[in-house]
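Notebook p. 47: complex prediction with nicotinamide-adenine-dinucleotide.
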Amino acid sequence: MKLDGKVAVVTGGARGNGLAAAKLMAAEGADIVIADICENMKTIPYDLSTADTMEKAVAEIEAMDRRALGIKCDVRKAADVEAMVNKVIETFGKIDILVNNAGNSSMVAIAEMEEEVWDEVLDTHLKGTYLCCHFVLPHMIEQHSGNVISISSVGGQRGFGMGGHYCAAKHGIIGLNKSIAMEVADHNIRANVVCPGTVWTDMMQGIAGFFGMEDEEAKETFFAGHLKKEPEVTPEDIGQAVLWLASDDSRCITGNMITVDAGWTAQAP
Ligand SMILES: NC(=O)c1ccc[n+]([C@@H]2O[C@H](COP(=O)([O-])OP(=O)(O)OC[C@H]3O[C@@H](n4cnc5c(N)ncnc54)[C@H](O)[C@@H]3O)[C@@H](O)[C@H]2O)c1
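Predicted complex, structure tokens below:
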């Protein structure tokens, strides 16, 4: 197995892309920690995961004969992230793989965007990635090995109207990743990014609901950029890229990114 004996932390791993990555890594031998907020945010127009969602995800991984731990953690808060990392070290003794996946979105034009709307998205994606790296990297440096995978987006490579905060955060993750890769290469730690196109998760369904769109209309709109329409990009497609980056199969790749977007970014935006 490719990740035998490894310990992987997946933020926002209670459902969607994060859970798919967690299960694929578990299938390759990794023990899994899911760190998820498990509560809603004021300006995010759809429900985030609950304690039940996380419990169910943990049970799914345990059913694969792996150790699994769910920790309620808001990646925007330094105290939460520090406590989460301490709990993982206390329980498993190490962290080999960190997947910065926690994410959310709202749709507001910058001219109308209140500060709190900006903060809830920027702080989750960008500050959350910084905080998780800040508290996990010292352990990886000490053990002289580690692997960080951060989830950006096609929105990290182009703009979306009404998604300025999301795109700013996702562009930021790509720059942050390159700097981290430079800082930790000598410690045998790699850092890479995965950029999904559209994936029909709770986040996208939530955004569709915000616009009052039926599933079919929303899918037509949100998948329009994909060159290759079939098969639809799934959370497992994103998880496979995470798994590959987490394994030694990608051992010479760092400071880089994989775009799983069915050809979207091949075209001029
Ligand atoms: N679905 C897509 O089309 C798409 C496209 C590009 C990138 N992404 C990215 O993939 C990642 C996963 O998104 P998804 O589509 O699976 O959505 P999702 O809503 O199904 O999952 C996101 C998870 O993150 C958790 N979360 C949100 N804010 C958090 C916080 N502050 N602290 C801890 N956990 C938090 C939620 O509770 C939820 O469990 C995100 O980073 C998202 O931006 C998704």
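Notes: Helices lie at 16-27, 51-62, 78-92, 115-143, 164-184, 202-210, 215-222, 235-246. The mean pLDDT is 98.
Next step: compare against the earlier run before touching the bench.
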